[in-house]
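Task card 7
Instruction: Convert sequence to structure tokens.
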Amino acid sequence: PYDVNNTSNRFKQKMWGVGLLAGLQAAWQLTQNWSIFTDTGVSLLYGKYNVHRHIYGLATLAGVQTRFHDFTTHHDDIYSLQATIDLALGLRWEWIFGNESYRLMFDAGWESHYFPGFNHLDQYEITVGFNHPPAPKDSNGDLSLSGLVFRGRFDF
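Output:
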């Protein structure tokens, strides 16, 4: 039996993709210049995930501390489809002028972007014997990004 002390895990994931986006944009006019807007969208991206995993640390075996730096290093290039869901709701001010040739618009709203199954990093548990690498277990976690957005636009 051994004890693992000061284990460090470094995980890094990058992703790029191209795909199609379909959605619906709507605005409910409150006054001549003010409206409430909503944007919804779904997309399917095809892209590449760059995944790097590095596990190292210290272990104690029979009272002696042993370093197992570089216990495991792994790199994957994964090509996959990624679904996304986009939602937005907010308040909009717009002014149409110049004989209806120009439009100035400002938005303030809340946006949320959801990526189901985005995490392609494995989680590791060091529960096997001292001379064996950590055992990976799948972790397909979701990614959600949301926040307040301010936007300006000029059309001509």
